[in-house]
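Researcher: Watch the backbone:
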Amino acid sequence: MSRRASGIAVSNEALRSYAERLLAGPVALDGLALSFAESSASSVEVFVEGETFYPPMLADIEAATSSVHINQFGFRPGVVGDAFAEALIRKVQDGVPVRLVVDRQGSDPEGSSREHYARLEDAGVQVCVVRATKARAAAGSLGSGGPVRWNLAGLGHIDHRKVVIVDGRVGWVGGAGIEDHFQDGRFHDLFLRGSGPVVAQLQLVFLASFRWLGGAVPREELDGLFPPAEAGEDAIPAVALHNAPGTYRPITDQIARMLEGARETLDVVNPYVTDRGMIRRIERAARRGVRVRLFVPANANNWACAAAQQFHHAKLLEAGVSILEYPTMLHAKAFVRDGEDVLAGTCNLEAWSLKRFFEIDLLVRSKALAESFEERFSTPAEARSTPGRRLTGLKPRARATVFAALSRLL
């Protein structure tokens, strides 16, 4: 992979100090390219399916005493969205600051979800919106009536992140929105729940984004947002990786390193596998003797990406990759290398995620977490999946060829 430009390096000791700088003045888009050193977690756990991860996530929110920060691509009304809205409103009523960063395309706060967000804002929840499809957009929180400014630098840069941070002590990172189809089994996804020092890195990413969008955070809250955190004797190496628009893309680089560095085993879990460079790395891993499992949906909700992906099945199968097609919409994004390195979050293996969108992942080095991932996700998913096949038939192969050629745009 070509050498990337460096992000803004923030040491673990300087996280709170850098947060003070964020609160002191305007934050530009290039200020979101944050580079973190390896930190640690006191605990990391994987939760699979909405019926498993939503209840403890809500319990963490209910237990919040100083802050609740959520960055979410898809937060819409429904059974799940209403439950979260009620929990957030109760927190505000308890005097706990609640802040949201949502994406206009994913959450539609000014359209079909307008009443949902009006209810949140009326209760005192602060909402900022990423408007990647608008050339001019208002600054500040959703209902603040802030000044309209040019948004040319933000055009096309969808905010695809899904993060929940509670009291600066607990952080959730995964692939699911706050939406019913992740609860009822239509979409199959997962979250990592982490605690300890690494949560401060997630907190800083949120604050940078919130301030970039014009949101206000009182300086006196910083002690609560960045509480002292010790991982203890059993510290788990971990680091937050954040792709922001620009040339610094640490998630993209880390995925490439994991694919290139796998020695024995490699699990790739992703709904949209179209990037030719990443596909070549997966193929080469299998050809050098790595046991590779590629988990994908049997019927992806994005038919163009599905066709482009299927174009590559023949060479992947020939290389020895085990392609496992999950029966419902597998939406999780995760990589497990050599039974120890686990990377999970929001980044897909297609051009928009790898190069243009806001994405966030958590990288954890833990044999215990890798074993738990195998038990809770990979083994059950493999049991339910069917083997991927080579495309047959002139029309399907022709369509796949066309979309594979367009994959740089998918």
The chain has a mean pLDDT of 92. DSSP finds 15 helices and 22 strands in the chain. The chain has two domains: 8-234, 250-409. The longest strand covers residues 236-243.
